[in-house]
């Protein structure tokens, strides 16, 4: 997979390193000469250019990329890069960094963004996830389809503890994608049962989140 990253700061370089370790082809783009540190990520391609300029993106052959990541520290730049990547080059997947949570509402499909990653929101969600049992925590928002990645730790008093997954009537537009049980990561099957303390990861439509939380957190009648 070929990935272009706009922004070669600490965030962009870290993402590049992870992707390269996983066997992907990475191009880092930055307009600041001081940001071009080839020795820090020598396996990546580097381009000194303004990612908001069509000529620069032509030089980067953005149409060959499977994914574009707008990872600069400027939300305006990230929005422009996302829009150009999607509308001018037809990049299938565009991921954008949100620096200021107040701007998060802009990072949607209208600006070409498929996935918006807000570091402050993600850190807050991870704190909630670590201390919350029985409460639905939103981890990540997907722009297309108005869906979110959400997590809930199944409380001991849940009526669904011990229930076979295939016997549960899940809300519409929700999908259980992973169960984290202690140190194990499980791909759920209809024959598996839920256990108290399971961390459940769902992709769910935002309109279904409350219904999903009610289903999972309902208490058994005494």
Provide the succession of SSEs: EHEEHEHEEHEEEEEH
Radius of gyration: 20 Å
Q: How far do the termini sit from each other?
A: 54 Å
Number of strands: 11
Unreliable parts: 127-131
Number of helices: 5
- What number is the mean pLDDT? 87
Profile the largest sheet.
11 strands, mixed
Q: In percent, how helical is the residue content?
A: 10-25%
**Percent in strands:** 25-35%
User: Tell me, what's the shape?
Assistant: elongated
Main-sheet strand order equals 3-2-1-4-5-6-7-8-11-9-10
Return the structural class: alpha/beta
3D structure, described in words:
The protein is of the alpha/beta class and 222 residues long. It is 24% helix and 27% strand. It has 5 helices and 11 strands, in the order βαββαβαββαβββββα. It has helices at residues 10-21, 54-59, 75-87, 119-131, 209-217; strands at residues 2-6, 25-30, 45-48, 67-70, 93-98, 115-118, 137-142, 147-153, 174-181, 184-186, 199-205. It has an 11-stranded mixed beta sheet with strand order 3-2-1-4-5-6-7-8-11-9-10, with helices on both faces. The longest helix has 13 residues, at 75-87. It is elongated and about 60 Å long.
